[in-house]
Design goal:
elongated; 6 strands; alpha+beta; Chorismate lyase; 217 residues
Length: 217
């Protein structure tokens, strides 16, 4: 408990510390820099888990960190992408083997920052005609296109693809000079979630991979 309390206090102190702005954020490769990156990743992860809409959560994150003005998410739709839903996916969505399922692969960007790449399987019969048209013909984010259904989310899994701290960080000696800049990989973590409408009908299954651009402010 003492270690957790000390960790939480240090996280608050690090996040409140002012930092220099620049065209590309460089995080120093020392214990403090790595701990601050971890705190930011966990803050983003927590905001996404707490929100009924990933679109809304990412726009809030973008606005709070002054990453774009206006902080509005845009979806770059890959119109050539195809990926069939598996039988397990259909079971989650509550549809039969012959019922049509739509698919989108999008890169979600706020300004010049691509914050996530998402696969989305959705049930067209549970959306309105205008929603289906928007999803098929425009680059609108899914969360904005279906907003009138008052969607909510249930997260099925969270996969942490990278951690800035080594597995034995709590047993190693903190401190020491910076080793340069942290080499942050392209992908930080991944969510798999079901999206429901106001009647609690499953309308979509999403797999969202969140990128290091969320840390580039």
């Amino acid at each position: 408990m003492r270690r957790r309390a000390a960790f939480a206090a240090l996280v608050v102190a690090l996040l409140s510390r002012p930092s220099a702005a620049g065209p590309m954020r460089a995080w120093p490769d020392d214990f403090v820099g790595r701990l601050k990156v971890l705190a930011l990743i966990e803050a983003l992860n927590g905001a996404l888990l707490a929100s009924p809409s990933a679109t809304t959560a990412l726009e809030t994150w973008c606005a709070e960190h002054h990453m774009a003005k206006p902080a509005r998410l845009a979806a770059a739709l890959d119109r050539k992408a195809t990926k069939q839903a598996t039988p397990a996916d259909r079971l989650i969505l509550g549809v039969g083997p012959l019922e049509p399922i739509g698919y989108r692969h999008v890169a979600l960007a706020c300004g010049t920052h691509v914050l996530s790449n998402a696969d989305n399987w959705y049930v067209p019969q549970r959306l309105t005609a205008s929603m289906n048209r928007a999803l098929e013909t425009t680059d609108a984010p899914f969360g904005r296109a279906i907003l009138d259904l008052h969607p909510t989310r249930q997260t099925l899994s969270v996969d942490r693809l990278w951690s800035p701290l080594p597995a034995d960080w709590d047993r190693s000696v903190a401190g020491g000079p910076s080793k340069g800049i942290i080499a942050i990989p392209a992908d930080l973590f991944r969510h798999r979630a079901v999206v429901y409408d106001a009647r609690h009908r499953p309308i979509a299954l999403v797999v969202e991979t969140y990128t290091r651009e969320n840390l580039n402010f």
